[in-house]
Amino acid sequence: METADPLIPTPYVVRDAWRETHDVVSLVLEPRDEAALAPCAPGQFNMLWAFGVGEVPISVSGIATAGREVTHTIREAGNATRALCAAEPGDVIGVRGPFGHGWPLERARGRDVVVMAGGIGMAPLKPVLEHLESYREDFGRVTLLYGTRTADDILFRSDLETWRSRFHLDVEVTVDTATRGWASNVGAVTQLVPRAVFTPANTEAFICGPEIMMRFCIQLLRERGVPTESIHLSMERNMKCAIGLCGHCQWGRDFVCRDGPVFALDHVESRLLVRER
């Protein structure tokens, strides 16, 4: 099978599409021709091209164990993402990638794992959870702490229910604002950290969400005793070229597209303390 050039958009066909929430859509893509992207790793991203509209970086939210399909979960936030979210089965999208560094899953083998997600930050962490469940015996206790604005904003509901029902993962979901029918946690996802069960000195933590949420999660995990080098976060920046040339996503001495999007906390901690303007 021919491997596509990651710098040239490769035609992919939308095999399936469904709406996760009012502004989030998941697309299952497969290569139209023989050429296909190299296999993606959890935490990496692809550049998706809505022809005639624009190109945007989108994290991989599903990796086929057999076949060549890849899933992306996209939130409508501009012209390009709006066009992608409107795609239907049979439509063609340009894809190039994969890019960036993913989650250090090998480092987590034999250890407890805490996964913390906020909003759309659940998308790049879904392949992590699928990997942890597929190789469950290789890891210690696995905990998912997930927060959204309301119950209507929860992503991957059926997956969450499956993970919880199998008792393989400890799953806790919270919402900022409770609506009628919601009978579970209410409040920020950080409120779930103090009662989560894990062994701090033997834990790897993976975090993705709004930066303010990640800062508070980091603080609470460190207060629990999780080592700085065991905390990893996925950053979002305005990525354009995906190879560290254009400079749009420069963050300190790194380019998020090339050196991230997943970073170890001990590598970037000082930057998280810089006040935003």
CATH topology of the largest domain: Rossmann fold
Sheet with most strands: 7 strands, mixed
- CATH homologous superfamily descriptor of the largest domain: Nucleotide-binding domain of ferredoxin-NADP reductase (FNR) module
Number of helices: 6
Helix content: 10-25%
Low-confidence stretches: none
Count of beta strands: 15
Q: Number of domains in the coordinates?
A: 2
In which order are the strands of the major sheet placed?
Answer: 10-9-8-7-11-12-15
Overall geometric form: globular
Alpha carbon gyration radius: 18 Å
N-to-C CA distance = 48 Å
Care to describe what's here?
This protein is an alpha/beta fold and 277 residues long. It has two domains: 10-99, Beta Barrel (Elongation Factor Tu (Ef-tu), domain 3), CATH 2.40.30; 112-272, Rossmann fold (3-Layer(aba) Sandwich). The protein is 18% helix and 32% strand. It is built from six helices and 15 strands. A seven-stranded mixed beta sheet has the order 10-9-8-7-11-12-15, sandwiched between helices. β11 (203-208), α4 (211-224) and β12 form a beta-alpha-beta unit. The longest helix has 14 residues, at 211-224. The radius of gyration is 18 Å and the shape is globular. It starts with 9 loop residues before the first strand and ends in a 5-residue tail after the last helix. The mean pLDDT is 92.
Index terms:
277 residues, alpha/beta, Elongation Factor Tu (Ef-tu), domain 3, Rossmann fold, 2 domains, 7-stranded mixed sheet, 6-stranded antiparallel beta barrel, 6 helices, 15 strands, globular
